[in-house]
């Protein structure tokens, strides 16, 4: 009886840990999604500014009071900012992919635990539970 109680307690604790890890991944995924949406908005705004500035440089729009050197400087700043945003987007996409892989690994571990429990019950042997989880 004591061994059975310990096993059930261990299984319950393991399930709680798994649930906590899933929640952490979910919160992190939601944060990444929000950041990607904000990034997309900033990229759109930069694109609009860049198109407008390019028209001014080509003389297709009213240049206003800016000289060509100032406009070129602004254009290069826009290009640098766009490149920075693209690198950040790549980093966020890698984080999102990591989270997907961690989630997939967790589901596979759960299936393994279930199969080990079924195999152990059918053989009449108590199987150890798998408690090794991926680090988040």
How is the topology of this model organized?
Elements: H1 2-58, H2 68-123
Helix pairs in contact: 1-2
3D structure, described in words:
By secondary structure, the chain is mostly helical. The chain has a domain at 7-99. The chain is 83% helix and 0% strand. The protein has two helices and no strands. It has helices at residues 2-58, 68-123. The chain is rod-shaped, with a radius of gyration of 27 Å. The relative contact order is 0.13. Mean pLDDT is 86; it is low at 130-136.
Main features:
2 helices; mainly alpha; bMERB_dom; F-actin_Monoox_Mical; coiled coil; MICLK protein; 0% strand; 136 residues
Task: Put the structure in a nutshell.
The protein has 136 residues and is an all-alpha fold. The protein is built from two helices and no strands.
Strand coverage percent: under 5%
Q: pLDDT below 50 for ≥5 consecutive residues: which ranges? A: 130-136
Q: How would you spell out the order of helices and strands?
A: HH
Helix content: over 70%
Question: Mind describing the biggest β-sheet?
Answer: none
Overall SS class: mainly alpha
Helices, by number, come to: 2
Query: What is the molecular shape?
Result: rod-shaped
Arithmetic mean pLDDT:
86
């Amino acid at each position: 009886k004591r061994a059975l109680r310990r096993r059930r307690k261990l299984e319950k604790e393991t399930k709680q840990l798994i649930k906590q890890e899933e929640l952490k991944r979910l919160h992190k995924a939601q944060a990444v999604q929000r950041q990607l949406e904000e990034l997309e908005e900033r990229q759109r705004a930069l694109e609009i500014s860049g198109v407008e500035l390019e028209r001014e440089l080509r003389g297709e729009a009213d240049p206003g009071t800016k000289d060509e050197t100032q406009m070129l400087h602004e254009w290069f700043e826009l290009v640098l900012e766009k490149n920075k945003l693209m690198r950040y987007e790549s980093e966020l996409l890698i984080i999102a992919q990591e989270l997907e892989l961690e989630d997939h690994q967790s589901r596979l571990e759960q299936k393994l635990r279930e199969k080990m429990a079924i195999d152990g019950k059918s053989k009449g042997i108590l199987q150890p539970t798998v408690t090794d989880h991926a680090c988040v």
